[in-house]
Amino acid sequence: MMNPFTKAKLAKASKLPYLGWVREQLSETNSAVRRWIEWDPDLDVYEAFYDARQVTIPIPVCDWSFLVCLHEIGHISTGDRRYSYLAEYNAETWAMRRAQQRYAVWNDDYLLDSKAYVHHHLVQNILYSSLEVGKVKHHVLDWLGISAEQVLEDARQYSITEQDNNLILR
User: Fold this and answer.
1) Bridge partners, 57 (sequence order)
2) What's phi and psi for 118, nearest 5 deg?
């Protein structure tokens, strides 16, 4: 049973095209909403539940929140989970491509944020998931606009910064 607050927010959002578009994509990908959350760009609580084919997504009220919804649906649609950088890359590019081709929605700031997010996951995969830089997908590096050597340097810098932060916390 949906709480009255969420029901009211969805009713208000239904006056915008985004909610209908999200529902269309949920139907096409045979996915469902586990939980709607009021849109807050500072929250990072949206997620995909692969096996259940469910997503926790914001109520879409703007281009950015719509793209976040598509990103989570993209996780279900693309299904890649081996390395987080690749899962995030696939979800981001699926979402942006779908938004632009089907609904003429594009956001340059979202693209920049997406690249930073994928880059962060790539660095973490190299440091903590035993991903060898030579096995990083070239099309992802091209999309990020960086070389394998730069990723290694970024991972080294990230590791140094993290060690410094751990010393400060002690």
Assistant:
1) 36
2) -65, -40
pLDDT tens digits, one per residue of 136-161? 999 999 999 999 999 999 999 998 88
- What is the Cα–Cα distance from 127 to 155, expressed in whole angstroms? 7
Read off the tokens for 70: 């598509």
pLDDT band per the 50, 70, 90 thresholds, residue 170? very low
Residue 112: how many other CB atoms lie within 10 Å: 10
pLDDT, tens only, 16-64:
899 999 999 999 999 999 999 999 988 889 999 999 999 999 999 999 9
d(CA 159, CA 135): 20
Torsion from C-alpha of 38, 41, 43, 47, nearest 10 degrees: 80
Residues 59-72 as b or e (16 or more Cβ within 10 Å = b):
bbbebbbbbbbbbb
- Strand 54-58 with 32-37, pairing: parallel
Q: Which of 70, 120, 129, 112 is nearest to 95 (CA)?
A: 70
Task: Indicate the burial class of 41 (C-beta count within 10 angstroms; 0-12, 13-18, 19 or more).
Answer: exposed
Cα–Cα distance for residue pair 72/92, rounded to 1 Å: 9
Q: What is the pTM of this model?
A: 0.89
